[in-house]
Design brief:
The complex is a heterodimer of chains A (287) and B (541). With 287 residues, chain A is mostly helical. Chain A has helices spanning 9-12, 15-31, 35-51, 55-79, 103-129, 132-140, 144-172, 181-205, 223-245, 263-276; strands spanning 86-88, 92-93, 97-98, 101-102, 250-251, 257-258. Chain B has helices at 45-53, 55-58, 80-83, 103-113, 118-131, 147-159, 177-194, 205-208, 229-239, 246-254, 263-272, 341-349, 381-384, 387-392, 408-420, 444-459, 471-477, 495-498, 508-513, 522-538, and strands at 5-13, 22-29, 34-38, 63-70, 73-74, 87-90, 165-169, 197-201, 214-219, 222-227, 302-310, 316-325, 330-334, 356-361, 365-368, 432-436, 463-467, 480-485, 488-493. Chain B is built from 20 helices and 19 strands. The interface between A and B is large, with 54 and 61 residues.
Chain lengths: 287, 541
Amino acid sequence: MMYRRAASPLHAARAAAGSAYCAALAAVALIADHPVMLAAVLVAEVCAALAAGAGRQLRRAALLTAPFALAIAVINPIVTRDGLTVIARGGQVPWLGNLDITLEATAYGGVLALRAVALVFAGALYASAVDPDEVLRLFRRVSFRSALTAALATRMVPVLARDAGRLAEAQRCRPGGTAPRLAVVRATATNALDRAIDVAATLELRGYGSARRAPRARRPWSRHDLAFAAAAVALVALAVAGELTGATHFEAYPRLEAATAPGLIGFAVAMVACALAPFVDRRGVSR
Amino acid sequence: MTAMVSLEGLTYRYPGADEPALRDVTLEIEPGELVLLAGASGSGKSTLLRIACGLVPHVHGGEVSGRAEVAGMDVREHGPGELAANVGTLLQDPETQIVMGTVRAEIAFPLENRGESPASVARGVEEAALALGVAALLDRPTHELSGGELQRVALAAALAGRPALAVLDEPTSQLDPVAGDELLSLLRRLNEQWDTAILLADHRLDRALPAADRVLALAGGAIAFDGPPAEFLAWAAGAAPELLPPAAQLFADAGLRPLPADVKAARAALRAHGLLEGREGAARPAPEARPSRRKRGATPALRLRGVWQEFSGGAAALRAVDLVVAPGERVALMGRNGAGKSTLLRVAKGLLAPTRGRVELAGPMALLLQHPGDYFLRDRIGDDAAPAVLDAAGLAERADRHPRDLSGGERQRLALALVAAGAAPGDPAPAVVGLDEPTRGMDHARRDALAAELRELAARGAAAIVATHDAELAAAFATRVVLLGDGTVAADGAPTEVLAGGWYFSTETARILGGAGGALKPEPGAALLRERLSLTEEVPT
């Protein structure tokens, strides 16, 4: 999952606007509890990724996330004792106690799984469509430590991805050999600290975070910058408004309470429309 | 005049190390000096460079005593970020020194950090890109670059701001001979026209010595010699013969004095002695490239039939390559950066599927890529390598150590033993062992040891194929040299045919003697010179 330059409105937007847009999608996934709203966020993310030419990256993210999401959906009803509507009686189980499965815990497990997928998708969209070099420049003007932390977070994903690719390739070069993927992931993670030190040292050697403040590059706000920034604000505003007005209300415990149409559907449709509106105008998308 | 680098009684010990890496080092480097650091692996060259750019002690920690100032700043008080205003740095592994997504952003990054205006940044990027030959790469993503390209881009980023001091650790290790020579010319130009002081460590002394004003030889962390190149050669002939470049070694072995620093000086001296015949040194036609039909009847270890490798959206890296390698053959795969050497090895191993053509292997193939450390996934060497492999690498007593505790040479030796062993005890050994640029950052002693290991592998029946820019390694181990150019086999023949007549892909001895007598290395070259000397003495004057 790496940034690749492409001709899309999201790629054409400045990093601040692109980051804000992805952060807004993540924020909606955190604010909204209603499964319909979460589904709307997922639809918006998938369509946005396809419109940004990042469909393949999103597919990889989905494959990686699916087992975790499934685990969340399965484990939540088993370990949660809340909820009044019992749909299956498991009796007393050693270590776990009473294993009654409730409708509420099952539904909330689904909500948590949807939220996890929506958060991962927002991250995948950010990683594949927002230029990390621009993000690095963005943070350079902040204090050195926070800038370095942000820079490391931005750079480490591609660095570790490259390391993992190299390690896996090296294992294939041994006679008879491929290593288990888990071993490669573990070795990559073990080396992450060393690699972070390498990257931090290089950033310092190139004068990153030195006393001199880089002059702010004067770049006029393009139609895409404005569109994605406006979409980010609108998405968060819609999510907050939905919760405040009760139109997207969802309460799992003790008994399921969920808002229903037509207000809910209106908010969901508006959410998807806001998220995808910036992709309609494709003028000036190549950089 | 303030010295660019001023060290006085400097002793440094890495955290947890028993011995200091630098001992009582005192030296001054003036603006405009080009100083070459010489010494075996582990002698302290890289540590000295890390002091000069501030990584020691700020990133590595450890104990420092004595005084160390760079550009008038005490390195214990000023970190690499502050020193970066005056110091451009390139360390050994370019992959760890690329932090941006595109080449343009990478070169612009240090200039932006210095607070330069956008116009100044744009000009600096263009100039550095032109100087380092990476202008065509400016809009390429950095993760798509080859090792040689990465090295040039990292170097462009280090030099873009025209620093007062350039600190360079093995800057030519991944470059082909042409690019390496061009880089040294560029450094010389920076040094002469902008007064840039250059502190350079390079095992390829034959390449770097003619450009140097001064040589610092390190041994065991202490300065063993400090003086001009000519005096260094005279000192090294007695005290550290392993540091002599091939031209000087040729003269030393032949009993000729003074020792030359480069090919031009060597040829002039030989001509003065009447030891060089008129046309020696003229380029010879390279042997014709044709599909080899060696050892007719024997099953080849590797056969490539009309192999193409065309990257999606990119160039063709291999174009209808036909190649047959027999068991026990030792092949050096040479060519400029991007000629297709690494791709050929990857296709042969099966890491890349050829877009057309066929690859046939007589048995398993082992391939040692450029980072030997990648072959170890676990925290204990013994968990990655079987006891027999550790024995073969001479590291049986270090089975409990972490792979990072091994030196670069030990790591490579172990990785080679690991790939060269069968998958499991009793399994067949690989029919082909490939190595991709194994000598980067390697000193002469380690290179000779590697050549011996390759000869041993081949003696056991494996075909050894090594992609390398290092003509000295090729001369030391190969029975055959395949020269690739633009994805095709440009020349294919015995080392004495291919390496004797080229301008760049030839050894220093061959360039001096023009390939006379098939001499590629100093020892046979010196024998030839001694023979000519004895003939000269017999001629009545």
